[in-house]
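REQUEST FORM: STRUCTURE PREDICTION
Request ID: SP-0412
Submitted by: Lab K.M.
Chain count: 1
Length (residues): 475
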Amino acid sequence: MRLCVRIVFSLLLSTPLLTSTLFSQTRQYLDAPVVKSRIRVQLSGKDIQWELDNDDTFRAFPAHGLFLTKSSVYVTYPQLNPLRVQATASAVAADDPAFAAIKKLIDGITSVATTVAPAVAPAPGAAAAAPGGPPPPPCPSADTDVANLMAALYGNDTTASAIQTKVKKWIDTIDKSLGTKTGPEAIQDGIAQMQTDAGDIKKNNVDKAKTQWNKIKDCAANNGLPLSEQTRYIAASASDLNPRIEQLTALVAAINDLANLLDKQFSDAAKWTGPKTTDFKISQEIAPTFDKMQTVTVRITTITLKVDPNTEALLTDQQAAGSVAFDVRRYGTFTPEIGAGAVFGTITVPQYGTGTNSLGQTVVARVSTSSVSVNPTVLANFVCRCGTGLLVPMLQIGAAASKTLPSILLGGGLRLFGLSKGDVAVGGGAMFGWYKDLNKLHVGDVVTGTQAIQSDLTFISAPKVGGYVAIQYKF
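STATUS: Completed
RESULT:
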């Protein structure tokens, strides 16, 4: 009865997949690649490219990218070096907190090079003590001790170019290790290099400067020295070098913090995937359902370290390299769409009117029958991914909200692509229709007129089965 038709209408119209957006993507859906576990993205020049799973052939993104998965996927970046590239993938654009922290730490590290030496530099001709050999006497020479202090605080190891060289070595270490080791192992190699550099700066610059500075202050208070020598120590101790010592201490702490951050963010093996464990997951697990697809936005930022030509300060330059958006939908054997068109049914509907019997009485009479054409309000195609080319098989389900013949249509057909702007579909199948028939009256019964016949008509309880042919267009 009509309830069955209403149920079919309700199911068709309430199905989230049956939206105009998805109907227009039928060909795109049929041609969409199927992902098992990974959508890999990488920056190639100025373009973001993609490939799936273990296929190493990267391609440019189409205008409207679409991928299908039977379960869930991750977006990954192969051989990601977090000191060179930052990448995020999310349904809603968001800055990667690890990227923000790394930027802040690198800025802190490189800012050290902007400090210049104060006016306590050694007198011309003064030389630093040669390494090795027996320890020097307690206060051998004010000029020598000041020269050693200045070398520790402002020597070649802490210039802008020296810091740039160290940072580049961290980046190169990770890049090189990614070629032969897993992602977590490569990150650990970079961390080890950072920790080594931090240890060297602490030992050769911070600790040595503190020792040398304390020595100069002690010698300034040594009344056993010749007056001229003690005077030079006193003059040297008058300068406040603690800010520079604190700055180098902060440099060591910043390098160690960066190493710890990389360890926390990138050393977990669960965040890496792929046959060689060198693809970093830049997204959370993406799990589309049959009623909700996921729209993913990928953003990639490059990091470049350069030296300011005026101040010789090492600067961190971040550039938005590009972004791309694509959809991830749940894989299905069929993709639904709705098309308008003409549907012709073959169910014969009885028609009743009045006649006269042999006694001259008005009676019920069958006056005619007709094969009714039906134009359903909703006719959905479920196009199969099992076909290729111009002809693709499909299933059909529809409902006709006719006042005289409400029907349910079940069938199949062929979806034809490339024939016109809107394409065409031809289908056919079974038509289950309900029409009004006599309830208590019968043909030949005496009635007062046609109104009595109309009042007696009611929909049949079981559907009448017939056939239909449909031609659809304008998908």
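NOTES: The two ends are 29 Å apart (CA to CA).
Reviewed by: T.R.
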